[in-house]
Each structure stands twice: as structure tokens, then as C-alpha cells.
Design a protein that fits this description.
Length: 249
């Protein structure tokens, strides 16, 4: 019954992505590479290594060694460096480092340059720990997802959320993005192949995706309600009749 309601309310065209402006070429250059920049409230995981362990030790935060199979993302973030509102972190020995606006690779190179003044051949592992995206609306499993790398597309995020439902408006997906204290609202049309070349194809930390429902969903909800109300009424009527019959002496 539900399948019939879906197919009668939603057209095939509304269910298909990338049906408009599809390029003749099957291969295209990537022009929208992700450009993740460090900003206030980011949490950075930084570990300094050296072939002589004692040389690197002063440049690392002291933290309890937990079983990697049990440690949570929250525990990892607690042992990270919080970027303050000035775009700075406080780093052992080196003091204040202003990294706002730098990419992860640029921050790593900057740190390596400073460390080489203290010992030879340092190795730095630097990662963004708060890369999280939130997906809500007409998806099968809405939620907030922690990302383990710095390259995730909007399509990857939708896949993490169980993909779009049959009632998703593929032509009007909202992407909320905050950058430098400024929030932007961006409309995305998944039915156009131009999306693959869009600046919004790859996501940034703390992006929020909202998938609107199409108008057909309102009709389907009303249809289900109209089918349910008579059933409930009939059950109530039968119950009343039975009560009346058994109450007669």
C-alpha cells in the first residue's frame, strides 16, 4: 500500500539525480579541490616525533595512553589543541602559534620549520579533529558524522546518512556553512550535473545539510491520515457496540 502511494505521488523524474546539463565528456579536471582552512574553535591533533624520543618529548602534551580500540572521538578531542578566537594555539616550548587561515599542510610546514631550530629531522603528525558534518531532513538516517579525513563530498555525507528518501527534493538541498564568523546559506541542485564542478561539492568542517521534502509528501501524509481515521472510527464504534451488548442484563 505504501509503495503504491509513493509511486502515485512521486514521478520518476523527481527521483533521478544529475539529469540536467550532463557533460559530453566522461572525464573532467577536478577544479573544486577541498580547501580546508584552520579557524577559531577548531581542534587540532598534533604529535611530534624524532629518532631520539627524548628530544621530541618536550613538544608533546602529556596524556594517558588509552587502548586505541576503546578511545572515542570525544577523548581524542580533549587531548587536542583548541584554536582560540584569535586563531592561535598555545604550543609547548614554542609558545603562541597563529594558524588561522592556514591549511593543515601549511600549518605542518610552519611547525616543522620552528622545530628544526631545536633538533634535527623532526616528524609532525597534524590532523583536524573536529571535522563533523550534519545531515537532516529527507534522508534515511539523519545525524552528525565525524569525518576521519579532510576530503568528503556532499554525496559521501548523504551516503553516510543512508541516502535520500523517495520524498527528497533533489533540486533544492540547503547547505549551511560558516567561515570566518560569517554564515552562508547555499542552494544545491542535485538534478544538475553542474554540481560536480561546484564549490560546494566538497564539504568543510561543521557544514550542515538539510534536504527538503517535495510537496508530494504532504499529500501522502494526508492520504495516510484519511485512511487511518475511518479505521480508528470503525474500531471505536465496534467497541462501543460490544460494551453496550455486554452491559445489557
Amino acid at each position: 500500500m505504501l509503495l503504491n502511494a509513493v509511486t502515485s505521488c512521486v514521478s520518476y523524474k523527481q527521483l533521478v539525480n544529475y539529469q540536467e546539463n550532463f557533460p559530453a565528456k566522461t572525464q573532467m579536471d577536478v577544479v573544486n579541490k577541498p580547501d580546508i582552512r584552520i579557524q577559531p574553535n577548531d581542534v587540532l591533533g598534533i604529535k611530534v616525533f624524532s629518532y631520539e624520543t627524548e628530544l621530541a618529548a618536550p613538544f608533546n602534551l602529556n596524556s594517558d595512553q588509552l587502548n586505541s580500540n576503546l578511545i572515542s572521538i570525544e577523548a581524542i578531542q580533549l587531548n587536542g589543541y583548541l584554536v582560540n578566537q584569535k586563531g592561535e594555539i598555545d604550543f609547548p616550548v614554542l609558545g603562541t602559534l597563529k594558524w588561522q587561515g592556514l591549511s593543515i599542510s601549511e600549518a605542518k610546514e610552519s611547525l616543522l620549520t620552528k622545530l628544526k631550530q631545536h633538533f634535527k629531522d623532526p616528524v609532525v603528525n597534524l590532523r583536524l579533529l573536529n571535522f563533523r558534518v550534519t545531515v537532516s531532513g529527507e534522508v534515511r538516517k539523519p545525524g552528525a558524522f565525524n569525518i576521519l579525513n579532510e576530503r568528503i563530498s556532499l554525496l559521501d555525507a548523504l551516503a553516510l546518512a543512508g541516502d535520500l528518501t523517495d520524498y527528497a527534493d533533489r533540486g533544492d538541498v540547503l547547505l549551511v556553512r560558516e567561515n570566518g564568523g560569517i554564515q552562508s546559506l547555499n542552494k544545491i541542485n542535485l538534478q544538475s550535473a553542474n554540481f560536480f564542478q561546484s564549490e560546494h561539492y566538497y564539504l568543510k568542517q561543521n557544514d550542515l545539510i538539510y534536504v527538503k521534502p517535495i510537496k508530494a509528501k504532504a499529500g501522502a501524509v494526508q492520504d495516510q491520515t484519511s485512511k487511518t481515521v475511518p479505521i480508528v472510527t470503525a474500531v471505536a464504534t465496534i467497541a462501543a457496540v460490544l460494551i453496550a451488548l455486554f452491559s445489557v442484563k
